[in-house]
Design a protein that fits this description.
Strand order of the largest sheet: 2-1-3-4-5
Number of strands: 17
Largest sheet: 5 strands, parallel
Structural class: alpha/beta
Number of helices: 12
Helix content: 40-55%
Number of domains: 4
Shape: elongated
CATH architecture of the largest domain: 2-Layer Sandwich
CATH class of the largest domain: Alpha Beta
Radius of gyration: 45 Å
Bound molecules: adenosine-5'-diphosphate
Distance between the termini: 82 Å
Length: 491
């Protein structure tokens, strides 16, 4: 907007019309006082100021405007009919004018000057605004840098106080912070601790996870720099997200060596105990069979019933010991899988038949659904049957009020796998405990008192399926039932 100041109404009017004809927005003032009041209130890109005015002349107005920060940068063009000699022009410039035009005004020249000043001032204003914004942004960034720095310091302080070895890695996977504990196992910040030769390489394993954007969890033995001894540690490296993308990684090594030693001793004990129990049990089984044959008891007699009960209990004990032996075989990497082409449908029917024969007819009702996998699949027949029998036994055991079990099979040609579901309508498993049921010795607390067991059946199942390159899983709703499944690759 342009302000025209003149005490002569007709001059004001003609100048206003001239500028408005060129699309300038114009305001007018009749006196120096009015001009000052308006200039302090509004933002003008240019002031055209008549020099000769009563009371306050143009020079005084310009000098006053130059004293205020709001108006001191506004360009002024003086208009004057007289005072054309050099002395007055100099005074005009000295009092803050940017240009000087004498009356009678040549409209073309005035317009040219107005346009130049107007544009210059507009650019000036835009530049000032940009500068202000820039300053604000710099200030904001500086502030957030300070906050971030204090947050990082706080975070590092927290990592320092952890009992574990803790470190952070940047987005590219380079270690950029380590806590004091790190130096018990490494001599420099950049190098991961030295690992036991047989254990997986940390850098390689982490790179694999970093590329997939997934957390790493690894048990490794690392070397203490002082004692030179290796100790088992659980390494965890987790991505830290910022606005949906990985910003950096936080890692810890937790010492699990003592725990590992106790676990090893327990495994050794289990292995010895189950082996030692197996031999006398096999003899007991043989002698009871012998006794049964020798006694030639009447099938209806109570003695025959007792012998049958003894045999049933021996069978249960045998299963328990076999399971324990399986666990120790898994621990020692000695669970052997002997694959050969087997018709899966026949295998499923055999397993169902075994369950029906070993349970009271009123206790179970097994339905068969889905596409029948009447195909040959390379697998260990005994072990896969063991998995299915385990799923079915659990389905019956954990459904005290419902005797219905459904076995459903799906053949997925595209994924090249077959899936076997065992569905029951029993007690179900709480959401957050579903993954844990495949862990060794895990039993769901809520039901562990009501149902007997050791919590190793599903662990063995998952190891068997793992060795067949398949997967196991469960979906379940408490009080509605569970579906346990396993998949096997078709090839
Ligand atoms: P066990 O039955 O001897 O305890 P498993 O390894 O077979 O051991 O099962 C582990 C746990 O999973 C069980 O203790 C039980 O809590 C839960 N579970 C397994 N199958 C079912 C099922 N069909 N319904 C509900 N809970 C189940």
């Amino acid at each position: 907007m342009i302000l025209i100041v003149d005490d002569n109404q007709s001059n004001l009017y003609s100048l206003q019309k001239l500028l408005e004809s060129k699309d300038f927005q114009v305001e007018t003032a009749n006196s120096g006082e009015e001009a000052l009041a308006k200039a302090l209130k509004n933002d003008y890109a240019l002031i055209i100021l008549d020099v000769q005015m009563p009371d306050m002349d143009g020079f005084e107005v310009a000098e006053t405007l130059a004293d205020y920060s709001k108006t001191k940068e506004v360009p002024i063009i003086f208009l004057s009919a007289v005072n054309t000699d050099k002395k007055f022009i100099t005074k005009g410039y000295a009092s803050g004018a940017k240009d000087y035009v004498t009356k009678p005004v040549d409209p073309e020249i005035l317009l040219l000057k107005v346009k130049t000043f107007y544009n210059l001032q507009e650019q000036n204003i835009a530049m000032k605004k940009a500068q202000q914004n820039l300053e604000l942004e710099v200030k904001g960034r500086r502030e957030s840098q300070v906050t971030m720095k204090s947050q990082i310091d706080h975070f590092h302080l927290m990592l320092e106080s952890l009992p574990q070895i803790a470190f952070t890695l940047n987005e590219a996977g380079t270690v950029d912070f380590v806590n004091g504990k790190w130096y018990e196992y490494s001599d420099s910040e950049q190098n991961f601790p030295e690992i036991y030769p047989d254990d997986p390489d940390i850098t390689e394993e982490f790179e694999r996870c970093r590329k997939k954007g997934k957390a790493l969890e690894l048990e490794v033995r690392i070397k203490n720099v002082v004692s030179g001894n290796y100790r088992y540690h659980l390494l965890r490296v987790t991505p830290v997200y910022d606005e949906g993308r990985i910003k950096n990684w936080v890692g810890t090594f937790t010492d699990i060596d003592d725990q590992k030693k106790v676990e090893k001793e327990k495994d050794e004990f289990l292995s010895i105990a189950s082996h030692e129990l197996k031999t006398p049990l096999t003899s007991i089984k043989a002698y009871v069979q012998l006794l049964e044959r020798k006694l030639k008891l009447d099938k209806e007699s109570s003695e025959a019933g007792f012998v049958a009960k003894v045999q049933g209990q021996i069978e249960k004990l045998n299963t328990l010991i076999t399971d324990l032996l399986d666990v120790s075989k898994i621990e020692n990497g000695k669970l052997k899988i002997n694959k050969k082409p087997v018709n899966l449908e026949n295998l499923i029917n055999n397993a169902i038949e075994t369950i029906i024969q070993t349970h009271d007819q009123r206790e179970v009702k097994i339905e068969r659904h889905g596409t029948k996998p009447d195909i040959l699949i390379s697998l260990d027949e005994i072990r896969i049957e063991q998995v299915l029998i385990n799923f079915l036994t659990n389905a019956i055991k954990y459904s005290p009020d419902n005797n219905q079990v459904i076995v459903t099979t799906f053949v997925d040609e595209e994924a090249e796998e077959v899936r076997v579901n065992v569905t029951d309508f029993g007690i179900g498993i709480p959401d957050f405990k579903q993954d844990a049921v495949f862990k060794k010795f895990y039993r769901v607390e809520e039901s562990s008192l009501q149902f007997q067991g050791m919590g190793i059946g599903l662990f063995i199942c998952s190891e068997i399926i793992k060795q067949h390159h398949g997967s196991v899983g469960v979906s379940s709703i408490v009080d509605e039932g569970s579906t346990f499944y396993f998949t096997l690759p078709l090839n």
